Amino acid sequence: MWERFSFYGMQGLLAYYMYYSVTDGGLGMDQGLALSLVGAYGGAVYLSTILGAWLSDRLFGSERVLFFSAIAIMLGHIGLALLPGYVGLVVGLVLVAIGSGGLKANAVALVGSLYSKDDPRIDAGFSLFYMGVNIGGLLGPLLTGWLQVKYGFHIGFAAAAVGMAIGLAIYAMGRKKLPESGRIPSNPLPAAERNRYVVIFVAVIVLIIAAFASKIVTPQNLASTIAYVVIAASIVYFALILRSKKVNATERKQVWAFIPFYIGSAAFWALFQQQFTFIAAYSDQRLDRHLGSWEMPPSWVTSINPVFIIIFAGIFAALWTKLGKRQPRTSMKFGLSLVVVGAAFLLFIPLESFVKTPLLALVGILLLCTFAELLLSPVGQAIATKLAPAAFGTQMIALFFLSVSLGTTLSGVLAGYYTEGNEIPYFIGMGGTAVVLGIAMMAATPALKKLMGSIH
């Protein structure tokens, strides 16, 4: 909860901090570039789950990686709060991205370790976990947004750091109660191979620095570069798992079955994560945020989705528990999710006739996005744990987060195509594509059933 408090508290301010003028406390960046960089940053967060998952599976176990990742997140928020200008932005975002990547996959792995693969309560358990996450997602933007309006951006970032410190203290007191399996690498790296991987890591860091120094990678093409890296990393990851001698024939079929879920997840997040790119700018400039004589901070729109998650996550969890083995297959949930989020974007079309969009209209759109999220995100995390080969538990979850990385990065790339006065083609393209993919996902259910075997 506190990690999400700090992350979304900072994320809710990030686009505005980048494109607001210097006189308003921002960096004065071009708005299109700022939205692209927000997407790129979000993609980098989920891309770094690869590193977190590898460290967990090969060296330290999920629990230890999670703990030290949380420390990195706290230091990143402190950097954003205390360091000035672009220096604070770069240092802070790099630390938060690496820390969040290490925390995400390992938190999910620890939740998954509480259930057996055939336990019908697993989807309900992840839905409750998701509700706790979104309590933090609700409170973070409310507090940091209010502090930003009243005292400035850096005080808002400082509140995110305090939230992460509270979370660390609570976790430190309770971490011994987690299963022992969380402290043991599932696929330990032999000591003889460690020097080779140190060389690889150093080479990757040097390559990244060289790419920026030579301007092969620039702020303008960072989002598309990360998208290409994520696609390449995903292909390599799937190939390594499918070719591994530690994966048996049944597990290999299940990995093949996971590929359509990866694609569906990436498509969903490309739309959903636009709440931090296109919808953030839309809320700032096009939304009527007045409640009587008081105007709501634009970052508070970020808290609307967590409110709905808190209300409906328990309902969805109870529904899946009540239905048990009779609940829809995961592919049907994924397909319906894509149809619903596509419909949400299509509903922006009639709003273009308004000078200012009514707040209630955007709330309704975000409610649909919430229903879509609950059909896909906790369910996607659960299916990643259920389809994962024994030797690649956390790394399979990292693959799911790679799909989120790709979608989040694309949310920044796609937001660059939105222009006032030419909105309808944008919404038709976004929403229509999602609806078509959702229908295709549901139609693929019989084929996926054969590959997944006994896994529902």
Automatic annotation (TrEMBL):
PROSITE patterns: MFS, PTR2_2. Keywords: Cell membrane, Membrane, Transmembrane, Transmembrane helix, Transport. It comes from the Bacteria. It is a multi-pass membrane protein. CDD domains: MFS_DtpA_like. Residues 1-449 form the Major facilitator superfamily (MFS) profile domain. SUPFAM superfamilies: MFS general substrate transporter (SSF103473). The chain crosses the membrane at residues 5-22, 34-53, 65-83, 89-115, 127-147, 153-174, 195-213, 225-243, 255-272, 300-320, 332-351, 357-376, 397-418, 424-448. Signal peptide: none annotated. It is found in: Cell membrane; Membrane. Belongs to the major facilitator superfamily. Proton-dependent oligopeptide transporter (POT/PTR) (TC 2.A.17) family. This is MFS transporter.
